[in-house]
Amino acid sequence: MSRLTVLCVASYFKGTRFIEECHHQGCRVFLLTRPDLADHPWPRECLEEVFFLPEVVSRDEAIKAVSFLARNHELDRIVPLDDYDVELAAAMREHMRLPGMGDTTARFFRDKLAMRVQCRQAGICCPRFEHVLNHGRLHRFMEEVPGPWVLKPRSEAGAVGIRRVQEPSAFWDLVETLADQQSHYLLEEFVTGPVFHVDSLVWEGEVVFAVAHRYLRPPFEVWNHGGVFGTRTVTPTSPLQADLLQANHRVLGAMGLVRGATHAEFIQSEKDGRLHFLEVAARVGGAHIDDLVEACTGVNLWQEWARIELASARREDYQIPGARHDCGGLMICLARQETPDLAGFDAPEVVWKLNRTHHAGLILSSPDCQRVESLFSGYVGRFERDFLAVCPPTDKPLA
Ligand SMILES: Nc1ncnc2c1ncn2[C@@H]1O[C@H](COP(=O)(O)OP(=O)(O)O)[C@@H](O)[C@H]1O
Ligand SMILES: [Mg+2]
What we know:
Layout: E1 5-10, H1 16-24, E2 28-33, E3 49-52, H2 59-70, E4 77-80, H3 86-96, H4 103-110, H5 112-121, E5 129-131, H6 135-144, E6 149-153, E7 163-165, H7 168-178, E8 185-189, E9 195-203, E10 206-215, H8 219-225, E11 229-233, H9 239-255, E12 260-268, E13 275-281, H10 289-297, H11 301-313, E14 327-334, E15 350-353, E16 359-366, H12 369-386
Parallel strand pairs: 1-2, 1-4, 2-3
Antiparallel strand pairs: 5-8, 6-7, 6-8, 9-10, 9-12, 10-11, 11-14, 12-13, 14-16, 15-16
Helix pairs in contact: 1-11, 2-3, 3-4, 4-5
The protein binds adenosine-5'-diphosphate (ADP) and magnesium ion.
């Protein structure tokens, strides 16, 4: 078979393991990224060439750029490495009639209104919601569904632009400021409770790997009030892990994903204990969740995603490697110190430490979930005391 050519699109620095796996499998790999990411440690030895497009270019210009590239190279696959690239990659595939997710499916993974509507149709439990479109319907929604509510942009990530509102008047004030952008938002009930994420791999419509974790605190709180970002494995043998995997399975089925890596989130309502679907993305989870998943299962989501894409392109079969079912915990925070000293975090369960200035982070892993849980809470307390710096919220995503 001739050499496969893969174009990776990345508006963030991530996915190096994906690029490396494609290269190791003999593919020609091109990277399309932003000029300001040029100096990041991309695995240049695995890349045929790197192209740059400014962030601000329109979809039409991006399609022109990739079509220009295709004059001299036969592209087999286009793969978006970040959430923001999912729609652009789909538009490029549609234009060039390449296999992979097209516009319709991509929309379910980027547009929070589209995913809500699709889930409701499939009978999946989710927060009650209303599109910020018809003002009469919005009035009725706030009468019927008790507050507080969240007003959120349909196509952002990392808790950007999400506002919690308590009173209808506060909602209308915000809507006023949104002016003609308001229909790019949705309003939904605020569901109080712990937030979970399920990270999975899909091969030919089947979820072949999935694991559920619980965030230390809801991401919205971390984003607004600062604090340690943390997450740990839901006990693999627990009914809750099984329920989360089942909910994830239903969501991915409803969205019609054929193959790839996914990151879905659920809130367990404090009121009735039910899992409410929050959102789903067609990408590997950010904020070092890939490292956490690898630590507790042995599966690297980026590498397996690359294997899935290439097996599909070659019409070969794909087998997920056997996974462990250990428990893991991840914690990261902004640090007051330039190079925080993590030497004292020396339990044998510490399998990874973050190496980044003004950040502290580590990953725990063990077959003993109780041990992980007790170490995790102790270490989070120490992170808060020893390192945590609090910064005001920004409009940049969390991860
Ligand atoms: N309906 C909701 N009820 C309660 N909290 C919510 C709701 N929607 C969002 N949040 C909070 O905001 C965070 C970000 O929302 P999400 O829909 O996941 O968008 P993003 O793409 O920015 O991650 C969630 O992790 C959760 O903490
Ligand atoms: Mg989210």
